[in-house]
Write a sequence for this structure.
């Protein structure tokens, strides 16, 4: 099928195609291990109870989250607008042997998943902020609602507008700061002009309203990570660091206001039965 991608989607696809082969390596460090542990703990309680249910990993990249649901026994679809990323997923599925046959792949943009029939999945995951990267978040969330089965759950991440303010303060550009606060729009920072694409950021309340406007019941909006560990990675070198830091992070997450200080937001929302 021939696909039409807008300028931003083409730029995103070009960047992600270029980095696909080394993408896993980019995120192979203790901070991202900590970050991923938090992410999975927020998803895991919402795994389908019925092993015949299907899951989908939107903006799947190299398949990190979809591979988790696949290994948990669920048929899983992997969708990304980058053919390079999908090729990485296909290699991993092949390496899994028979279990990998329950995985399927689609090259598509999350704003238009028209080849997927309605109400197909019990769990929709969209990690790595594809909602912020896509050209039309409103349309993307409506598409998520469409492909979810009744009582299905969406677990989705996005860039936090409040967490992005520090970047503009550090730049010392008042005009840019005003524009960012007003629009929530920023751009992916890369040296290649043709790979630069617009990002949409959300405050926690904006993200909640976006999903509610698409008919979702919002269960939770959490921030990641509350502990700014990238400012001092030596904390990750302590014995049992991940375990201890996860415990602290989850304790802090009990206060919804803590999401405001984070770079990323993770929303959990249910499609009413």
């Amino acid at each position: 099928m021939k696909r039409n991608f807008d300028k931003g989607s083409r730029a995103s696809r070009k960047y992600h195609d270029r980095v696909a082969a080394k993408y896993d390596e980019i995120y192979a460090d203790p901070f991202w291990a900590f970050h991923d542990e938090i992410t999975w703990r927020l998803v895991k309680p919402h795994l389908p109870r019925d092993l015949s249910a299907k899951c989908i990993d939107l903006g799947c990249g190299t398949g990190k989250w979809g591979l988790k649901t696949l290994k948990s026994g669920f048929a899983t679809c992997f969708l990304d607008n980058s053919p390079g990323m999908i090729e990485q997923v296909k290699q991993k599925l092949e390496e899994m042997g028979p279990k990998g046959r329950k995985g399927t792949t689609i090259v598509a943009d999350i704003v238009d998943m028209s080849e997927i029939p309605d109400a197909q999945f019990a769990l929709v995951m969209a990690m790595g902020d594809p909602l912020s990267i896509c050209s039309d978040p409103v349309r993307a969330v409506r598409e998520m609602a469409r492909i979810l089965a009744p009582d299905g759950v969406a677990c989705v991440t996005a860039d936090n507008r409040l967490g992005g303010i520090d970047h503009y303060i550090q730049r010392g550009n008042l005009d840019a700061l005003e524009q960012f606060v007003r629009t929530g729009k920023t751009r992916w920072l890369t040296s290649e002009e043709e790979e630069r694409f617009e990002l949409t950021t959300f405050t926690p309340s904006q993200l909640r309203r976006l999903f509610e406007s698409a008919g979702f019941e919002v269960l939770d909006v959490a921030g990641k990570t509350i502990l700014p560990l990238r400012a001092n990675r030596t904390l990750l070198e302590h014995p049992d660091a991940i375990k201890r830091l996860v415990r602290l992070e989850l304790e802090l997450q009990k206060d919804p206001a803590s999401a405001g200080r984070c770079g990323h937001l993770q929303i959990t929302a249910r499609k009413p039965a």
